[in-house]
Request: fold
Amino acid sequence: MSSIDLRRLGLRPGEVRGERVDVELDPFLLGGQRYEAHPETAPVDVEITQASATTVFDLRLHTRLTGPCMRCLGFAEIEIDATAREFYDPSAPREDILRSDYVVDDRLEVGAWARDAIGLALPEQILCRPDCAGLCPVCGKDLNDEPHEHTERDVDPRWAPLEELRDRLLER
Reply:
């Protein structure tokens, strides 16, 4: 994990410092599928502002993830622009919002923070294209390459008693 030693900065109240950290991003596992960052190492810009008692951290990064489309399992690639803000007041109680979990022993853990920021910036579904038709639920063919419908209907024999009941109720 990449980190910034906050003691070496020696910021005084009102000072702002920008740092760029190259972070190696591990693959993400989403819905049982693997999504990899390209390139594997992403530059992360961190702006550190020292307020009177609290330090404010702002993170910005851009990366690209590749992996399978969540509808058709084809190749999908998405661009991620992630931003995040954290606060750190060493005198605040541990569970307080002013006590960042990413500051450990006076080091800002940029790698863990960047990974979490990417996770929060991910779309609900990673798709090869916005109008991806997915896979046919009957035969499993890719509906993007071969759009079709199945007009014949093979009824599962386990549903036959319910169909008989439906037919009897409709006859009344």
Remarks:
- The first strand starts at residue 3 and ends at 5.
